[in-house]
Design a protein that fits this description.
Organism: Hydrogenophaga pseudoflava (Pseudomonas carboxydoflava)
CATH superfamily: Farnesyl Diphosphate Synthase
CATH architecture: Orthogonal Bundle
Largest sheet: 2 strands, antiparallel
Number of helices: 15
Number of domains: 1
EC number: 2.5.1.10
GO cellular component, one term: cytoplasm
Strand content: under 5%
Shape: globular
Distance between the termini: 20 Å
Enzyme class: transferase
Keywords: Isoprene biosynthesis, Magnesium, Metal-binding, Transferase
CATH class: Mainly Alpha
Number of strands: 2
Helix content: over 70%
CATH topology: Farnesyl Diphosphate Synthase
Order of helices and strands: HHHHEEHHHHHHHHHHH
Length: 301
Amino acid sequence: MSAGLSDNTAFVAWRVRQQEHVEQALSNWVLADAPAGLGLVMRYAVLDGGKRLRPLLALAACEAVQGDPAVAMRAACAVELIHAYSLVHDDMPCMDNDVLRRGKPTVHVKYGEAQALLAGDALQALAFELLVPDDGSVPAALSARLCRQLAVAAGASGMAGGQAVDLASVGVALDQKALEGMHRLKTGALLQASVMMGASTAALDAAVLRQLSTYGACIGLAFQVVDDILDVTTDSATLGKTAGKDAAADKPTFVSLMGLESAQAYADEVLDQAHQALSASALPHTDTLHALADWVGRRAS
């Protein structure tokens, strides 16, 4: 790994500051005035919780390429809205049937399944609305590119497809290649898209984009490996969600496949690859992206 930038005071200050900016932007864009209380459900699903890793990756990538920060904030919030909608739907009884998310009752537990379903639908729509503002602040070609990146990452070739594989894999002994393939879609695609959408706010050559894409893919895979580790080593109060649920549901995980120590070593290996890709990009402002990789590997929830 890199030289421990995730412990650096400057990075912590950057992270807290950007988390606050993202929270404020989300609060400004996810309004409470949707009909029949839907806005309140949407705000409950999005605000006051989560690490905001996806927005942070988008904003840090924008900084690395010296792109447009205002467009990057729209991209950051759009990705977070897609992530939030996916959590609302994944937690419902028809899928993971979970009751705890970000330390509070899941949306369907608090507001009912119908409102949860509608809130997820509305959050997904709002994500794309943010990328196509009617004030001309985002060039049309860039809006189209960002929308396509997000749609591919969220749809059948990305997150939704990965979730379908996940549901079909309960009780199935997947090998490492199949497990990685599932999580590159379910979790990794949106994390990778976060990086690439932030990078899209500047004009870059293909070689740099390839290295950033590799970085994003490695972050996505490492995040899931660490998530599997935390699922068996950390309690629900710390996680903010139900611990041990993968094992209870007989889902294949990196820990069940490799064992705890080997899974941790594999997470470290993948994060090393992320750092190497950043170094190979030769971009001059990648310290924050390096620090985010370290943070992914060392997080406790």
